[in-house]
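The pair is quoted verbatim below.
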Amino acid sequence: MRTRNPGSRVGIGVGRVAFLPALALLLGGTVFAGLPQKKGRELSLDPRAVTVGNIKQVGLALLMYATDYDDVYPWAQNTLTVKGVTYPYVMNRSVWRTHNPSGGEFLFNLSIGGVEFSTIPRPAKTVAFHESKPWPDSKRCVGYADGSARVVDAPTWASDSKSLLLKLKRKAKRPLPANWGKQFLPPGG
């Protein structure tokens, strides 16, 4: 008759189970933000939560790009170029979609293009991406240079939007050609 080694593990250990809530906490709940909310007998997605999740993913793709390029953001001449050069990090065009009933799109803060991350004075207050139009309640979804994303009200946006006019020293030698990176996007990108 074989006996089990008392040091062997069977099933899922406590350490593995404790890891999942810790991971969810580190991700700031954004992974779960767009999950269906039960309303009566039907399931629906909160459009603002999905939009915040999308802008967060776009911001994290930007940080991954910067990490691969010596912590320098792409010196883009437009948002389409940023969309192209970050596509390999998300592989999903739908993350660039806002669900704002007022319409609009995500825009990249061109003033941080070509800038090294460490030279940005306040990354948690420096806009990296923002919605081009506010929601009907005057709030908008904003992604920041540190990778965070949140919904801000009009007064906060008035303060944070000043970072769109920053004059920072660029580390990149020259800007990427207009619409460069478009070749990375799938057709219709």
